[in-house]
């Protein structure tokens, strides 16, 4: 039976469908996608499917192999390390470069989201915790005028969390929230350089977090 995608644009619907299949573990890292079979299954032409796959390749989720199909990429430890490094550099620069755009309302929202994350941790609600965490960081990322930078950041973070097999580590999440609190306090005190250092040297530091990264992804360091 075909799965019909009736909402346009179809390429975005196919993209979201494939992302969900990866998240659920239906499309596992290392597996291949047959465009012909998937096109029939979804009831769509190959054009929106190809567009969705090109976007997924751009974001690092798949690799298009000429005449051999599409391979779902494996998230390696090196991928995680480079992702952390990139996020650290970008977020730290935004905090310092656009500090003058912070308002009391931004600090309040950061505190509210961090409190929600702490509540989610106590309930073991990982999915809502991840969404709240994205919103937390977006509060200051959105201070930047660089729309390309924003589009660049989201798929990196999504790839870190969208493959199955991650483990909810309560101790790590509690520490992340403590780092959030430190970040907020430094920003409120007018110390953007020190706040940026927290992002670079602690919060998004691969070396600082690698003990938990290993547990989270079941990887060997």
Description of the structure:
The chain has 221 residues and is mainly alpha-helical. It folds into two domains: 10-72, Orthogonal Bundle (Arc Repressor Mutant, subunit A), CATH 1.10.10.10; 77-217, Four Helix Bundle (Hemerythrin (Met), subunit A) (Up-down Bundle). 68% of the residues lie in helices and 5% in strands. It has helices spanning 10-24, 35-42, 46-58, 77-97, 104-123, 126-141, 147-161, 170-188, 192-203, 206-217; strands at 32-33, 62-65, 69-72. The protein has a three-stranded antiparallel sheet with strand order 1-3-2. The radius of gyration is 19 Å and the shape is globular.
Counting H and I runs of at least 4 residues, what is the number of helices? 10
Q: What's the helix-strand series?
A: HEHHEEHHHHHHH
**What order do the strands of the largest sheet run in, or round the barrel if closed?**
1-3-2
Tell me the radius of gyration: 19 Å
- Give the name of the CATH superfamily of the largest domain: GntR ligand-binding domain-like
At CATH level 2, the architecture of the largest domain is: Up-down Bundle
Q: What is the CA-CA span between the terminal residues?
A: 44 Å
Class from secondary-structure proportions? mainly alpha
Q: What is the CATH top level name of the largest domain?
A: Mainly Alpha
* Oligomerization category of the chains in this entry: single chain
